[in-house]
């Protein structure tokens, strides 16, 4: 075989290998945010502006998450129903990405009357998590309830329930462009396992 | 049939009956545990780091069995120490559970996840509940 032929074969082989490898690469996550039309073009809605107070009394707003992805959920510290399992699963996510600076966590209380900054700080300290990595926020009740909707969560005050609240337990993944890219039921540990894979795919994107 | 056969058969029937009984009482305890306890203490009894105490390997459950029925029925306020760690989140009361249901839950906890804390008798639970009646 001539040298030319040899190198041609070699490059063909390399090309095939590259094709195979690219095929192996994980799919990228779809954008799941709500859409609306603007001048005939489809626009994905972003997580709106917000400003809350974190467990170390600092302001937590959109700038806190600039250039990062984050997972968000809604809970309250005295919740005897789905929250402890959700927090347990959030802790799994925290542990998995503890050393990855691209991901932060954001837990909103839906019970700002009882969940003071001090109480949230105690709760976070008990979990043993870093305040700059996992933000527990409180704030204006209406703002908290409104933004729940933007994170695909429903929060309703229901005085007939022993706990006073009804809420869905979704954990949502937001990308640096403030778009929702994945979510899961926070009480379902298998779903959370798959969700962690989704987070890995997103973090590889940037 | 020889008498040997009869004895063997009797033992076999007895064994099946007994194993059935044991399973039944834990089964009710297990279902109740999943409905009333697992949300906070988790399916595997590990609790929630720093905020909700574990039941698996718990020093408090092991050494203070008479306190458990009262905590289940009337809830828990204030700090409690489990395995050297202090927990201070309130636990809600579960007033709708009967004495026998509480007994079954405790026996499920006492024999699950590697716990070997022994059987608690219905009478003991009833006595404990009388002492802490509110």
What's the total count of β strands of chain B?
2
Shape of chain A: elongated
Give the total of domains of chain B: 1
Helix content of chain B: 40-55%
List the helices and strands and how they pair.
The complex is a heterodimer of chains A (206) and B (134).
Chain A: H1 3-24, E1 35-38, E2 41-44, E3 51-53, E4 59-61, E5 69-75, H2 83-96, E6 103-109, H3 117-127, E7 134-137, H4 141-150, E8 155-157, E9 165-167, E10 170-174, E11 180-185, H5 189-203
Parallel strand pairs in A: 5-6, 6-7
Antiparallel strand pairs in A: 1-2, 3-4, 5-10, 8-9, 10-11
Chain B: H1 3-36, H2 38-41, H3 59-63, H4 68-74, E1 80-82, E2 85-87, H5 99-110, H6 122-131
What would your notes on this structure say?
The complex is a heterodimer of chains A (206) and B (134). The longest helix of chain A is centred in the N-terminal third of the chain and has 22 residues, at 3-24. Chain A is elongated and about 85 Å long. Chain A is built from 5 helices and 11 strands; from the N terminus they run H-E-E-E-E-E-H-E-H-E-H-E-E-E-E-H. Chain A is of the alpha+beta class and 206 residues long. Chain B is mainly alpha-helical and 134 residues long. A two-stranded antiparallel sheet of chain B has the order 1-2. Chain B is elongated and about 65 Å long. The N and C termini of chain B lie far apart (61 Å). The chains are: A alpha+beta (206), B mainly alpha (134).
Task: Supply database-style keywords.
heterodimer, A: 206 residues, alpha+beta, Glutaredoxin, 5-stranded mixed β-sheet, 35% helix, B: 134 residues, mainly alpha, Cytochrome Bc1 Complex, Chain D, domain 2, two-stranded antiparallel sheet, 2 strands
Task: Compose a concise summary of this entry.
The complex is a heterodimer of chains A (206) and B (134). Chain A has 206 residues and is α+β, with helices and mostly antiparallel strands.
